[in-house]
Amino acid sequence: MKPLDMRDIAIIDAFPVYKPEKIVLNTGCGEGRIDFHFGAMGYRVYATEIKRYDTWKDGKNLTFHISDIFDISSFPVRSAPVVICSQVLEHLADYRKALSNLLELTEIRLIITIPYRRSFNSPEHCNYWDDVGLARFKDVHEFVELCHPYMVSISKIRTKPEDVRKNQYNYLIIVDKRQLS
C-alpha cells in the first residue's frame, strides 16, 4: 500500500464518530490509493471511477466499479453513509450537477476535496476556488448554499511539507446531512 498524505488523513479524520458506519462510496477514486487503506481498516468500500486503472484490485472489503458521477444509476449502491469525492469537481464543467448527485447518494456525511486556487494546477482543471473573493476564482463558500439545508464545514489543508513552500492547499469540505443549518 502506498503511504497516506495529509489530504487522505484529513478525509479519514472527517468520518463520523457517532455511530460510525462501515460503508464508504468513493466517487472518482483514481488509482484507489486511499481505498486500499479503508479496506484494511474494515470498511466496505465501493470505489468508483469513470475508467478502469491497472492498479485496481478487488479485495475482501473492496470492489471497484466504473461509474459516471452524472448518472446515479451507474453506481454500485444507491446510497452510502459516507461518500467521498476527492479532487474531482475541479475537472467537471457542471460540478453543481455532480454535487447534487453526490448529495443524493449521501446518507450521513459527504467529504469533498478541491484545490485552492491554482494549487496543483492541471490543464484538465476547469474550476478554481478561493476564499478571498478574487474575481477570477469561484468563492468556495458557495458550497454552503449549494448544500443547503445541511451544515457545511470548509477548511484548508496542505498535502505535503513542500506545499508550504509552494503555497499550495486543498479545501476540505464536509457536509453533514444529520444537521440542518
Describe what this molecule looks like in 3D.
The chain is of the alpha/beta class and 181 residues long. It has a single domain, classed as Rossmann fold (3-Layer(aba) Sandwich), CATH 3.40.50. 20% of the residues lie in helices and 31% in strands. The strands form two sheets. Strands 3-2-1-4-5-9-8 form a seven-stranded mixed beta sheet. It has a two-stranded parallel sheet with strand order 6-7. The mean pLDDT is 90.
Task: Write a brief structural summary.
Helix content is 20%, strand content 31%.
Total domain units: 1
The name of the CATH topology is Rossmann fold
Label the CATH architecture: 3-Layer(aba) Sandwich
Structural class: alpha/beta
Strand content: 25-35%
With helices defined by DSSP (H or I, 4 residues minimum), what is the helix count?
5
Order of adjacent strands in the largest pleated sheet: 3-2-1-4-5-9-8
State the distance separating the first and last CA atoms.
39 Å
Query: Kindly state the mean pLDDT as a whole number?
Result: 90
The CATH homologous superfamily corresponds to Vaccinia Virus protein VP39
Q: Could you list the spans in which at least 5 consecutive residues all have pLDDT below 50?
A: none
Radius of gyration: 16 Å
Would you report the number of β strands?
A: 9
Q: Mind describing the biggest β-sheet? A: 7 strands, mixed
CATH class: Alpha Beta
The rough form would be described as globular
Helix content: 10-25%
